[in-house]
Amino acid sequence: MKIRELIRKIVEDVKKKKELFAIDDYFIEKIVKKYLSSNAKLKNFLIEHEPKTLSRSGKYKQLIKKIRSELRKVYGVYAKKDFEKRKEFLEKRDYDSILKSHLSTKERFGSYPKLYEKIWGITGKPKSILDLACGMNPFSFGHMNIKNLTYWAIDISEEDAKLISKFFKKEKINGKAKAMDLLKIKEKNIFEKFPKFDVAFLFKFLDTAIIKSRKIAELLIKSITAKWVVVSFSTKTIGQKEMKKANRDWIIKMCKRLEYEVKVLNFENEIFYVIKK
Ligand SMILES: C[S@@+](CC[C@H](N)C(=O)[O-])C[C@H]1O[C@@H](n2cnc3c(N)ncnc32)[C@H](O)[C@@H]1O
Question: Could you say which of 17, 41, 74 is where a domain stops?
Fold first, then answer.
């Protein structure tokens, strides 16, 4: 099988899960290519097989699972039953279970109190937070140790925004949750009508296949209406192995060029850049 044929087949098979069907092929291809280029042995094994026999191979099935898991991680795409569960947790005010129901927040769950303590140690305790591509992170509010806070949460997922809105209401948090596509920044300043925030979070978003270029990442950081922007990246690969290049030097270089101050916080699965604009 030709490599192009193989990639096509993988993309099609990955998309057989209903909740992943709507994802752009381009992004899936990017993840597949990245995965194959770092696994030469597997790539050769896959190329040697015919499509039909490949579908039955354990190694192939494992690969499809890994790619799906990466997509869920990147996109926060979940099956309907997960959304239903989160609603039940919200009813019971079981916010830690909501945090554990999403890969990104699950990975940092044990670090939360220390993480916020360290961030506030640099930025000072904020009175307002803008959480971008937030996923379930707003449910970590209880770990922030802040009483009066204005909290805006933005994510592309309507479902997430609805759930977070309900949470803000229930806990009487002065918050707003909105569904918004951050990539629209390419066309217009999406933050034009936003108020000023003390701190903005951009956790585990910039490094994904979603962001096609660093220019977009830079544009986002520059346009965010906050004095402090905290950007984070995962330091684990799809297979939960330590990444070879866990540091994102481009962030440091970018900050130097733009004359932004930057401090680095290293946590078990994640690296944080606390940027002062
Ligand atoms: C890896 S998760 C990170 C979630 C959260 N920031 C955290 O670290 O806990 C990526 C998030 O980005 C959101 N997302 C993906 N594309 C987006 C876009 N174009 N605009 C806004 N949010 C997006 C997904 O819905 C998902 O919640």
Answer: 74
Q: Quick one: which atom of ligand 1 is closest to the CA of 184? A: 19
3-state secondary structure of 126: coil
Per residue in 218-270, pLDDT (tens digit) is 999 999 999 999 999 988 755 555 665 556 788 999 999 999 999 999 998 89
DSSP 242: B
Ligand 1 centroid, distance to 254 Cα (angstroms): 22
Q: Residue 272 has which token pair?
A: 């944080």
Q: Which two tokens stand for residue 239?
A: 């297979």
- The pTM assigned to this predicted structure is 0.81
**Integer Cα distance of 182 and 216 in angstroms:** 10
List all residues 6 or more positions away from 120 whose beta carbon is below 8 Å from its beta carbon.
Answer: 126, 145
Residues 28-86: tens digit of each pLDDT: 888 899 889 889 999 999 999 988 899 999 999 999 999 998 887 777 666 677 888 99
Q: Which residue has the tokens 């990017």?
A: 30
Nearest ligand 1 atom, CA 182: 20
Beta strands in 90-164 (DSSP E): 128-132, 150-155
Pocket lining for ligand 1, CB < 6 angstroms: 73-76, 104-105, 133-135, 137, 155-157, 181-183, 203-205, 210
Which structural domain, as residue segments, surrounds residue 37?
A: 3-74
* Residue after which a domain boundary falls, among 40, 74, 108: 74
